[in-house]
Structures are given as C-alpha cells and as structure tokens.
Design brief:
The chain is α/β, with parallel strands linked by helices. 28% of the residues lie in helices and 24% in strands. It is built from 10 helices and 17 strands. α3 links the parallel β3 and β4. The structure holds pyridoxal-5'-phosphate (PLP). The site of pyridoxal-5'-phosphate has 12 residues, from β10.
Length: 370
C-alpha cells in the first residue's frame, strides 16, 4: 500500500446523488439537474457513477480540462457525444483563448461578456455548430454576471446575442455563496426569475433553463421554498459532502464522510509544545502562535499542505489534535489518544470540500474506492 491515500466511498456518493435528485427534481420542480465535478478534478469513478444515474442531466465543471476527461472516461457515440446522453456544462465564464474547445466539448456554456459571446459565435460558425449559452446575471454576490440592477444593459446584451446566428440563448444563470457569500433567498432568487420573464416578454423569446445556483440553494429546495420558475440547479458540495453551503446544514437523507485520507506516521517523539529559540517565520511566511501545554507526544505524518488543507481534515480518532504543518509534514498531538500509535501506523481523516479538492489535485496522493 502506498500513502497518503484518499479513499472515496462511492456508495455514500450514490446515496447523496439520489437525495439531491429527489429534492431538486421530484420535490422542487427543477426540470434538469447539473452535478459538478470540479471538487475532485473529475474523478473517473465518480464521473461514471453520475453518468449512469437517470436523474442527472448535465455533467458540469469549471475547467475545460476536467470536461475533456469525461470523453476519455465515458463511451462516446458516433458523433463524439457522450453515449450516456448527459450534456456537458461549463461553469466558469470562458477565456477567449479557449473558445474553439468550448464549441467542441461544451453543450451549455455560462457566459457574461458580449465580446466573448461574439467570438464564441465565430468559433461556432467555423465549426458548424449552434452553441447553447446561459447569460449570467449577478444578483449581488459580485462574482460573474451582468448586475441585476442594470436592466437596460441586460436587455441590450440580450438584443445583441439574438443577432448572432450560431448562438442560442437557452436561459440565464446566477451564482451566489461565492465571492460576496450572499445567501440565495426567496426574494433575490424570485427577482432573478422575474428578470427571465422580463427578457422573454421584451424580446419575444422563450428561456427554458433558469439556473438558480449551487449547493447554497439546497436549504431552500430541501424545505420546499425554491422559487417557482427556477428550472435548473448546479450542485457540487451537496452530493459529495452532504452539506448545503448557505448555513452549512446537512441536506436531508444525505450522509457525510465520503472522502477519507489515510497517512503514515514517520516519527513519534515526546517534545515540548513551545518551540525553542528566537521565533521568526514559519514555512509559509507566517508568524505562528503556540500555546504552552507542556510536554506532548507528537507524531509526524507524511502528508503536507501540498496535498491537503489542514483546516478541512478531521481526525477519525477524536483524541488526536492537529498541531500544524508545512508542505510535506503534518504534526499531530497524540498524547490523549487511547490507541498506542507506533511509527508506520496509519492515521485517518474525514475530509471537507477543500480537503477533497486539494487531495485530488495532488499527484502525490494515491486513490482507492469502496
Ligand atoms: C462551483 C460552482 C457550482 C457548484 O458549487 P457547489 O457549491 O459545489 O454546489 C455551481 N455553479 C458555479 C458557477 C460554480 O462555479
């Protein structure tokens, strides 16, 4: 066995996908559901699981590299589309330098800049495709999208989009809970749906995909309060971690703990809790603070900040405390543990979202499945 090792519990993820499908589609009236794979760099086994689930409509990611992986992982039909019938969705508004690839691999592209949309139209024309897009509207979180208050600007952009022959405006999208940490509620999401209706009546078009947000919306869906008119949501965290990201609650029926990291102990020594000598900067340029807790049994595990986010890992042995770490080492206080740890033993941690992200991005972490 090689360590550090990430263990992915596919049965837990399957359970969580079932619950997210039930809540968003069966109970909250969403017509389509996008599940997001960027949290684990489009892990092949998770991608296969989502591709085989009848409740999933879009496989979505923020990076084209991850979406390209789908086409290696999954069987394709004679037109080069995913044979499972799932559509691909690009979450990050595209770079002008990647538009040919967008046209080639992406069924539905979230986008906000009219200049980029015009260039996308050129790429689509060149490759003889009609490219579906969602125009992003910013409801106050202040990341991507046209600001909701500037209605005339939104209508101008829509008018310009409608002149582009190889672009089809399928709807609008909103993202919250990110930069501004703004919580989606019945009022701001309700206004977002109003904007969709206003675009339809002003321009005489129909928008079928009104994409209402990410795992921050799950608390609304879970309590039957997702505003009517939202027809799609894009969910990462809730089907992986089981949590919703507005109030950090557990989504009903989901289970936590699908991602576990195992690491090997390389040193155990009884040492003081306070470093000895003049203090300067730590390995990451910060001035650390340590509390004097007397002598402690300290274990070093062979995994570090290059592979994991210390704030997003919880020891399965509750008596272990994480003291800190550097790029390649993490130091644990094992003084109070009931287990008699030896050098060479394996310690396990349950990972949160950013722990999963870092562990799946590190090429030093082995993966296994159960
Ligand atoms: C990451 C992302 C999502 C999914 O976010 P979760 O909180 O993991 O559900 C949805 N939409 C956009 C635009 C994203 O960037």
């Amino acid at each position: 066995m090689k360590y550090p090792r990430l263990i992915i519990d596919l049965a837990k993820i399957k359970n969580n996908v079932d619950q997210v499908v039930r809540i968003t589609k069966e109970e909250s009236g969403c017509e389509t559901l996008a599940l997001v794979t960027k949290g684990h760099c489009a892990d092949p086994e998770i991608v296969k699981l989502l591709a085989s689930h009848p409740g999933v409509d879009f496989l979505a990611d923020s990076r084209i590299e991850n979406i390209k992986k789908y086409f290696d992982i999954l069987p394709c039909d004679e037109n080069g589309k995913l044979a499972c019938g799932k559509k691909t969705m690009m979450l990050r508004i595209p770079m002008q330098s990647e538009l040919d690839e967008i046209v080639k691999y992406i069924d539905l592209c979230q986008i906000s800049e009219i200049e980029t949309i015009k260039l996308l139209n050129e790429s689509a024309k060149k490759l003889s495709k009609i490219q579906d897009i969602l125009l992003m509207i910013d409801m106050g979180d202040l990341r991507e999208g046209l600001l909701f208050r500037n209605r005339e600007k939104i209508h101008e952009v829509v008018s310009e989009i409608l002149t582009l022959e190889n672009i089809k405006l399928r709807g609008i999208g909103v993202n919250m809970n990110c930069y501004g940490a703004i919580i989606p509620k019945e009022d701001n999401l309700g206004e977002f749906v109003d904007i969709a209706r206003e675009i339809e009546s002003r321009h005489g078009i129909e928008l079928d995909i009104i994409s209402g947000g990410n795992s921050g919306t799950m608390y609304l869906s879970d309590s039957g309060r997702l505003p009517k008119g939202i027809t799609n949501v894009r969910i990462g965290e809730s089907h992986l971690m089981g949590t919703e990201s507005s109030y950090l609650g557990q989504v009903s029926g989901t289970v936590p703990g699908a991602f576990t990291l195992e690491a090997e102990i390389v040193e155990i020594q009884l040492k003081p809790s306070l470093p000895i000598g003049e203090s300067g900067y730590d390995a990451f340029g910060h001035v650390p603070y340590y509390e004097d807790k007397g002598e402690m049994m300290r274990a070093i595990i062979a995994v570090g900040k290059q592979d994991i986010e210390i704030d997003s890992m919880t020891p399965v042995d509750e008596k272990i405390e994480i003291m800190g770490g550097s790029s390649d080492h993490i130091i644990l206080d094992i003084t109070n543990s009931e287990r008699d740890y030896k050098v060479g033993d394996i310690v396990s941690f349950t990972l949160g979202y950013s722990g999963m992200l870092r562990a799946t991005t590190s090429c030093y972490v082995e993966k296994s499945y159960k």
